[in-house]
Design goal:
heterodimer; A: mainly beta; 14-stranded antiparallel beta barrel; 3 helices; B: alpha/beta; 2 domains; two-stranded antiparallel sheet
Chain lengths: ~400, ~450
């Protein structure tokens, strides 16, 4: 039993650390996929010190000493403001999302391990007021992809391992916006809702020449998503225009999620302190436009120009073993935005971002532990003129993220 | 153990959330009036500045008239009160007491489908709108539908006796039958004048079918004299201002909804008409595809001919007559629905001359000049605003109201924005433009 004083000191220390470490490369790649990685700014490819190696670098799975299962959630609070040259400040509806994650590593023997990863590496959700000045561009947009990755890893020698497996992606595309047609009941609205499944693969290499140093290289392929049978519905359609806007119909679209190459290293400076660094390169260039095609009605077809650029991120992080029960972590990252000025739209008001993260692990006995993480993302202010919509203005965002991961090793 | 109590964990999470949940709101943009002064704005013009729309003067369109939208913009840079002679809520007053037009979906009499038609929303307009408003309030918006340049200095324009004066001006003249619009304008001691006059001087003729109209074109020499006098007078108290010129025919739906060669025929239809015209007038023939309509022409031996490119059919012609009663094919379209070459020339020449006068007055008096003629051409090509493509297409283009000549409320906002752009440039001001999409669009049934 710990005394009250000790408890208080720990509480204060915990708060302090919490306030003083993740994300992938911009666009709508999500941060907060595992709390241990997150709290180190996401610099994890060369460290991969927990079950989330099944995602970050399957080459490292055999280097784990135990089998482990981890499950957790992150709570993402986004605050975005838009400054219109016509109507001043508008705040995005408060964005809250709570993606879950699950990782597992099973050590079969010293050479083989199997892993499983289930998370949401692509996660975009923006909502604006129904009557806002950009309603003909977007009222609500969701672009989500849940990745399921079973993998297997083989350790060639004491210092070198390699792993990989398929990526099975489940995508959700949801879009709600106004149509510039007015009926007696109000403005016509459009809602698109489609699911898709796509496939890719993930390969990781892990090198650990000595106890102090390790490095990793991971390649996760791009995934082509085809929405083949989406549902489109139109509301408040004037009867005289019902031939053009059916109350419900089908649509198709397709898009490509980028491949991500990550190179990372970790160095154990002292018994307590480990420093990590990562660079990621995301081939967002493949995300050029979203073309929506409607069943038997090409008059409704429309496109959304994206023309993303490839993007990179640099991440640094550190882990400090306070004692047998507690580890503290912090990290920092810079993430470049793939979205070009002339195609930035309010469905994803992205920009280069700085990320600061903090967190820690509390161990409960030999087998159980909890990872906590907090991250602040500051998306720099950006003034743009979207050429497709002639929609101009300034955007800025702050994202607060809290996360928790429960681990059990055996 | 740390966080033994769940409440402590919750408290920790909440305190961190409160501490770090940051606001991202932008500060208000700083606007300024530059070298202009909007404390007392006076507006002089015709139906376009009065807020006339859908073939009537009614409250909603008046409330979102071009000058009303401008006043809402000027309010960011010290603009003063802006009073308009508003009519009562309802269907409004319109031409010959008609109610405002709205779109109805009706059965096409000769086909199985339906068509959209602009029709009066009530049997009659609201007659109580003719009561005099009194002289207690000075009105800033002195624009009145159906105002020619000569009406601005005519005392009888405000005569309240039935059918003598203008029904709107007689309603709010400072002294009905005695005061004039230009006199009332000076009574406000304006610091800024907005003038768009001359539309009725040429378009009453054009919209009435030219020579068949009840109105003639104000001769350019008279327009020049009166306009110069008007601007001299309005600026005699050192007002700033903006002058709008006159747009040409070619981007206004009244004149473009029925293209001259809008008669589309199947091979069989063309053959039938050719068989008929072999007897009636062998100089007229048709081919499968797009053809010019047949119009009345007293100079032709058969009393008819094909309309030429550059001549116009007005959309006041009944669509039923075209679709069902053989107008434009077996029946020549009557002259009051057609602008033939000499009429078009007279209109174009007048507009060119008016616009020279307006531009030189702006230069001579140091006033901002808003080239509406150029802006109408821009609208004709389409203007993209916050994701919506506005154009001069009838009904679907969104710029013009159901009458095809006066702007819709969104059209008013687009034109107000063009005027703001002009003022900002000329007076080194920074005045925010209007959010066009915040105004009402055309309601489809």
């Amino acid at each position: 039993m710990v005394s009250n004083t000790q408890n208080s000191i720990r509480y204060i220390f915990f708060l302090a650390v919490f306030f003083a470490s993740h994300s992938f490369g911009g666009g709508f790649q999500s941060s907060m996929l595992s709390m241990r990685a997150t709290s180190m700014g996401g610099a994890f490819t060369g460290f991969a010190s927990d079950a989330s190696a099944a995602f970050y670098n399957p080459g490292a799975m055999t280097f784990r000493e135990y089998s482990q299962i981890s499950v957790g959630a992150s709570f993402i609070l986004t605050s975005t403001s838009y400054l219109s040259p016509y109507s001043g400040n508008t705040n995005m509806e408060n964005g809250f999302s709570m993606p879950l994650h699950l990782y597992g590593i099973g050590k079969l023997n010293d050479q083989f391990a199997i892993g499983i990863s289930l998370n949401t590496p692509f996660n975009l959700h923006t909502t604006w007021d129904d009557n806002w000045s950009g309603r003909y561009i977007t009222r609500e947009t969701k672009m989500k992809a849940v990745y399921l990755q079973p993998s297997i890893s083989y350790q060639f020698s004491e210092t070198f391992g390699m792993g990989g497996g398929p990526v099975i992606a489940f995508g959700k595309t949801f879009l709600r916006k106004a149509v510039p047609v007015t009926s007696v009941a109000g403005e016509t609205g459009m809602e698109l809702d489609g699911n898709s499944t796509g496939y890719g693969f993930n390969i990781g290499l892990f090198l650990k020449p000595n106890d102090e140093f390790s490095m990793g290289l991971d390649y996760r392929s791009g995934v082509k998503m085809n929405v083949n049978d989406g549902d489109a519905t139109f509301s408040n359609v004037p009867a005289s225009l019902s031939d053009i806007y059916p109350s419900s119909t089908g649509f198709t679209t397709e898009y490509s999620l980028p491949s991500v190459i990550s190179l990372g290293a970790a160095y154990k400076v002292s018994r307590e302190l480990t420093l990590c660094m990562d660079v990621n390169f995301s081939t967002w260039k493949s995300f050029d436009s979203l073309e929506f095609k409607f069943d038997n009605n090409s008059q409704l077809d429309f496109g959304m120009s994206k023309f993303y650029n490839n993007a990179f991120a640099i991440r640094v992080g550190g882990q400090y073993e306070v004692n047998d029960r507690f580890e503290a972590r912090a990290g920092f990252a810079f993430d470049s935005s793939p979205v070009p000025d002339e195609y930035l739209a309010p469905d994803n008001p992205d920009n280069d971002r700085f990320m600061f993260s903090l967190g820690g692990t509390i161990k409960f006995g030999e087998n159980a532990s909890v990872d906590l993480a907090y991250m602040l993302q500051n998306i720099k202010e950006r003034e743009v003129m979207n050429e497709q919509y002639n929609f101009s203005g300034n955007y800025k965002s702050l994202i607060n993220i809290f996360g928790i991961t429960l681990n059990y090793q055996f | 153990m740390l966080f033994q109590k769940p409440s402590l964990l919750l408290l920790t999470a909440l305190s961190m959330l409160t501490f770090s949940s940051c606001q991202t709101d932008f500060e208000d943009i700083k606007y300024y009036d530059g070298n202009a002064d909007f404390s007392r704005v006076v507006v002089v013009g015709g139906s376009h500045l009065a807020g006339y729309s859908d073939r009537a003067l009614y409250l909603e369109a008046q409330s979102n008239s071009i000058p009303a939208i401008l006043a809402s913009r000027f309010s960011f840079v010290g603009g003063g009160v802006f009073n308009q002679p508003l009519v009562y809520p309802g269907v409004g007053i319109g031409i010959a007491g008609n109610a405002r037009y709205e779109l109805h979906q009706i059965m096409d009499p000769c086909q199985t489908g339906t068509i959209l038609l602009a029709e009066p929303s009530a049997i009659t307009g609201d007659n109580t709108n003719y009561n005099w408003l009194g002289d207690l309030i000075k009105y800033n918006n002195l624009a009145v539908p159906n105002t020619h340049i000569s009406d601005l200095t005519r005392q009888s324009f405000g005569d309240p006796s039935p059918f003598l004066g203008n029904p709107l001006y007689a309603r709010f003249a400072s002294q009905p039958g005695t005061s004039t619009i230009s006199g009332d304008a000076l009574m406000l001691n304006p610091t800024f004048v907005t003038v768009w006059i001359g539309m009725e001087d040429v378009y009453n003729y054009a919209r009435g079918g030219g020579e068949e109209a009840n109105d003639s074109i104000t001769p350019p020499s008279i327009f020049s004299t009166l306009y110069t006098n008007l601007i001299n007078e309005l600026t005699s108290l050192n007002a700033n201002g903006v002058l709008m010129n006159i747009p040409s025919l070619s981007n206004i739906p009244v004149f473009t909804e029925f293209p001259y060669n809008g008669l589309v025929l199947t091979p069989a239809e063309a053959a039938n008409l050719n068989a008929l015209y072999a007897i009636v007038d062998p100089t007229i023939s048709f081919t499968a595809g797009a053809n010019p309509y047949v119009i009345a022409d007293a100079d032709s031996p058969s009393g008819r001919r094909l309309i030429h490119a550059g001549e116009y059919i007005l959309n006041t012609v009944s669509r039923d007559s075209i679709n069902c009663q053989g107008w434009g094919t077996t029946v020549p379209i009557d002259g009051k629905y057609v602008l033939v070459e000499n009429e078009v020339t007279a209109i174009v020449d007048a507009i060119t001359a008016y616009n020279l006068t307006i531009a030189s007055c702006a230069t001579n008096k140091g006033l901002a000049f808003c080239n509406m003629n150029a802006f109408y051409k821009t609208l004709g090509n389409g203007v993209l605003f916050n994701g919506v493509n506005y154009s001069s297409e009838y009904l679907y283009g969104g710029v013009f109201s159901t009458d095809g000549y006066h702007p819709s409320q969104r059209g008013n906002a687009l034109m107000a924005n063009e005027i703001v752009t002009t003022i900002n440039r000329y007076y080194s001001a920074k005045i925010p433009m209007a959010d066009v999409n915040a105004y009402s669009g055309i309601v489809f049934p």
